[in-house]
Structures are given as structure tokens and as C-alpha cells.
Amino acid sequence: MERSCSSFSATASSSSLFASKRSVVSRGRREKKMTSLLLRRRGRKETTSVTPNAFFGNKDDKKKSDDNTNDPLKKMKGVVNEIETKEELEEYLVSNGDRMTIVKIATSFCGPCKLMKPKFELFAQNYSDALFLYVLSDKNEKTKALSDSLKVSEVPSFRFFRSGEQVWQYAGASEKILRMTIIDNLLEGEKR
């Protein structure tokens, strides 16, 4: 008798397991359908990706159209731009004005630098009001001189500039700390 009860309970629990998997799949389909309905109502194509995690930043297309059209660095924003000399850095800092400029200094043999590279690119896409620059300090003599002028002692290292002046620095490979530092250094009105 116990044997049949235990086999019955095992069968019942396995059927409830399958039922829960079905409900999860149907719930996912419902969410996808609702997302596509919302996109159609807003006039967007269904292939547009919607980021459910707003913690990475605001990806609102309406705000992108409101950007300054006379911004000379507009095509450089939203991507990571590699620089090699101190003169290039100073030129970008002057051109970017009072908006935030973030410089990542890395080396080619650094594991944590390689780990942070895709995350830094993601931040560049999501925080498009800031200018993201990248220095590979062991690439040549110019990049070595640039990293020395920035007084880099450990990599990956991040320097935050506003109005041509360094306002903050961070060294390490923590995505969470870097994200919070970026958010904390954004001014009111810049995209978060």
C-alpha cells in the first residue's frame, strides 16, 4: 500500500512539475505578446529590443531625438573611442564641454581589463550623453606617455572628467561600482 501511495505522489508531483513548466512557457508568451502590443501602440517596430532592466540606463528613443543636433561629438557618443595621445584627450575634453567624459585605461595582458571591456561598451551605449574613451597603455610609446600623465598605477582604471577637469577616479573590475560611479557623476538632465 505504501508503495502505491509513494508512486502516486511521485506521479502527482511530476505532473505538477510539467504543469508549472507549461505555465511558465505560456506566461513568457503572454509577456512577449504584451510587449509587442505596447511597441505597436507606441509606433515602434516589433524587432526593437526592450530592456527590462532599467538599472543600466534609459534607452528611450524619444529622448535621443531631443539631443543637440549641433553636437560635434554626436557620432562618437554611444560607442567606446580609442585614443593614443594626451593631445587627443585634451581635444575631446574641450569639445565635450561640461558633459561627462569617462576614460578607461587598460593593458593587453590584463584579465580584469578584458572582463570589463564588454561592460564598458554596454555603458557607452546606455549612457549616451557621456563620452567614453579607451586607452590601451601598452600599445605604443604615445599611449604609455598618456597613461603616465594620468598617473595610472593599476588597471583597469577609470577617470571621470567634466569641463576638462578630473572629478573622480576608480580602479578595479567591479561592474556594480563602475555603474554606480557613472550614475553618481551624471548631472541632472543627462540620461540615466
Helices and strands, with pairings:
Blueprint: H1 2-42, H2 61-65, E1 80-82, H3 86-96, E2 100-106, H4 111-126, E3 131-136, H5 141-149, E4 157-162, E5 165-171, H6 175-185
Parallel strand pairs: 1-3, 2-3
Antiparallel strand pairs: 2-4, 4-5
**Largest sheet at a glance?**
5 strands, mixed
Total beta strand runs: 5
Q: Label the CATH architecture of the largest domain.
A: 3-Layer(aba) Sandwich
Silhouette: globular
Strand content: 15-25%
Number of domains: 2
The CATH topology of the largest domain is what? Answer: Glutaredoxin
**CATH homologous superfamily designation of the largest domain:** Glutaredoxin
Characterize the structure shown:
The chain is an alpha/beta fold and 192 residues long. The protein has two domains: 1-50; 64-185, Glutaredoxin. It contains six helices and five strands; from the N terminus they run ααβαβαβαββα. Strands 1-3-2-4-5 form a five-stranded mixed beta sheet, with helices on both faces. The longest helix has 41 residues, at 2-42. It starts with a helix and ends in a 7-residue tail after the last helix.
